[in-house]
User: Fold these one by one.
Assistant:
Number 1:
Amino acid sequence: MDYESIKAEVEKVLSARRFKHSAGVADTAAALAEKYGGDADEARLAGILHDITKELSPEEHMKLVRKYNITLDEDEKAAPKLWHAITAPPLLKERFGVSDAIASAVRYHTTGRADMSLLEKIIYLADYMEPSRDFDGVEKLRRLTFENLDDALRLALRMSVEEVKRSGKKVHKNTLEALMYMEGLKKPED
């Protein structure tokens, strides 16, 4: 299935607002991939697909959890906002035959993780600062993203940790590990 056909399928299942966001992520991801030597087509595809299960109900997510034998840890069970990143990858592999790299970029676009691949970094950042996003510091993050990807990732992870803490929620362990890794405080385990 080509990109335009997949994009049309995504548009059918997302609200207009969510689809606009996903298209913005796709375009931003492609531009970042071109800048940093990644595969722009792969980045565009991961971008358009990253939120494909975002608007499913909790019941629909649980059906996917059961269908794909997904194990949610205690933190994930308590954070329905993260479920779309967990349920989408196996669905995308089955429905669209996406690569492991795209599935992983979709999986970690909400939390990040230690030792992220180039594509994972690109999708995380593109999702965070695509053109329809509007929050304090987004313009600085956008500029930095096109100057130095790793510096931008460090900033985005710090901003994410601060935002989650301000909301009174628990920061996901993957986000903390990603930030520690990017700040040189922890190395990935072999």
Number 2:
Amino acid sequence: MFHGSMVALVTPMNPDGAIDEDSLQRLVDFHIENHTDAIVVAGTTGESATLDEDEHCHLIRLSVEIAAGRIPIIAGTGANSTREAIDLTRCAMDAGVDACLLVTPYYNKPTQEGLYRHFRTVAEAVPVPQILYNVPGRTACDMLPETVERLARVSNIVGIKEATGDMNRAREILERCGERLDLYSGDDATAMELILLGGKGNVSVTANVAPAAMRDLCAVALTGDRERATVINQPLESLHQALFVESNPIPVKWALYEMGMIPAGIRLPMTPLAEQFHDTVRQALKQAGVLT
């Protein structure tokens, strides 16, 4: 349903933590100008865990309003409460999003049957296209390929963002689900390989700061041209790593601040990037051609 480079957008904030709506407008326009294929708002990179429900819905509505149909908007609406996930997903659908992205429930560690029932219940309650999101490194919850296969039979579950970086896992999902479910990378460092394997795109942190290069990388990888994709990816490799020297979105928000795109705001318990990593991120931005 969605192909290519989908930016996992940061939520720009003022130093007091309030959402900076002017900077959000700037970021959306920046991605449209650089031909990003879709924008994911209110996800992990968007600090969804520290947005209250009113802010979460407001951010989604505002993003749809700013985009004005110029680029698809995918809203992060996952929660570790099924009822809350339904409420957020319904809010996003009413706002006019193109799809929702739902992370596996975190902290409460459901069984595979619990995961199946959770996602099926949300999908049956809200008829918007929905993309599953598996990121066990952050949630302490791993949705296995056999569960993904069961969920692929639900008509409005259209894709999965698989962020393990495990190509064997990706291959198994593709074999089990075929054309019933689109597979997306959630790991910039291995995104090229996943797309060449048969994935349909990448939900990208790196695209926040290098949108044109990530768009080109995904587009070329989708054609199956490994050689050209490798040439595009090579200058980005250090950036893929540097944007995770501390927990996401700490480094990428600092990078965007360094680029003059957003204020320095970030919400506790996240903290500004430690000074010892400034040069690491700055050099990676220069290698990628983002900074001179």
Number 3:
Amino acid sequence: MRKLPGGYNRGAYELREREGTRAVLKWRPPRDPTELEDTAELVRRALAAGWSTPRWIAYGTVPDGHEYVIEELIAGARTATAADADLSLIARNNRLQAGLAADHRRNWSRHIWRVIFETDPTVEARLEALPATAVVLDRVRALSRDLREVALPTSDLVHGDCVQDNVLIKDGTAYLIDAEHCGKGPRAHDLATLLFEATVGGHPVRSSTAGARSIAEECIAQIGREGLLLCVISTTIEFLAFGLDHWTADVPNVASRCGELLSALGFD
């Protein structure tokens, strides 16, 4: 067993059986075990519908309650970039997520709403304490003031962490790995997360203006401009809060890029 690169939490480990079969092991703190079974069923259903994600080989809990998932390893794949060709492959896979999760328990539409309108007081206080993030927080508060009644879809499959490091490209197919956070909601949220990371995040390859516009237009076609704005705002709040814990020194620069993205999308 060897630890694979990447991962802010407990990481991922490659497993090898004696006959050479390779897989990936991940685990997480104790949660509701019925939710793990629910997610496993959603992954099975999505695979049957043609969605590209690694098959779950095994999953369960260990005696102390921690949950584990062993999924197939997509051998020979490379990590996605923000290049237009990769974005197109991800968008194609995203279309297969339509209507796949209506009865799933985890509700990403509700999560997005709560991040914006019921922001954790501790997170809010930390963002307000830093001038650069306070400016962004004030801006998204103003932009979201009249959006409380906007209804986001709750039937699509949402991966929940659609960042470049969680997308592998192989043989013209984009595979979304780490599907443990799958749930129901607007599939456009995954594209909005990808758009956000490709323009605001720190990856060396940036999407072209045309590529970023194409992703934004696909989101708008699915959930409208107000829906896209909700997805971008919730991702902005969570990303900046995450940055305060993991790359504090760069948060002011990231906050500035968040503002630039909002302007580029016409949210002024």
